[in-house]
What does this fold into?
Amino acid sequence: MTSREGSQFELYTPSERIRRDNSRWTLVQGILAPAQFLVFAVSAVLVARALLTGNGVEAAQWSVLLKTGLLYAIMITGCLWERDVYGRYLFAPAFFWEDVVSMGVMALHTAYVYLFFTQADPALQLWVAVAAYVSYLINAWQFLAKFRLARKSTVVPPLSEATS
It folds into this structure.
C-alpha cells in the first residue's frame, strides 16, 4: 500500500498527525469505540440467546437499540474528527473504503430501528441485527487493520533529524 507521497503507506501526513493529536474528537473516538464494542459483545450474546431459545427477546431488542445509539454517536463524532484531520466530513482518501462500509453498517442498523419502531416480527428484527453486527465486525476489522498497518509502517526519523 502506498501513501499520497511515496512508496510507503502513511495514514497521516505530518500536518494531519498534528491535527489528529489536537482534535478533541480523537479522545471522544478513543472512548466511544471500545464502549461500542463492549455493548456490541453483550448485545450479540443477548441476540444469539433470543434467537436460539426465544428467551430475553425484549432485552436483546433494547440492547440493539443501545448499540445503534452508540454507533450513531461514533459516526457523528467520527465525521467531525475526519473534518478536523482531513478537511472533509466523510470519504477522505485515507479512510474511503472504511467510510463506504460504514454507510452499509449504518443502513442495516437504521433498518433495525425502523423494524423495531414499526413493531415488525421480533425474529426479523433480530436477524437484521445479526446482519448489522456482521457488517459492524467487518468495518471494525477494516479500521483496526488500517491503524495496525499505519503503526507498523510509520517512519520514525533518525534522532539526528528529529532534534534538528
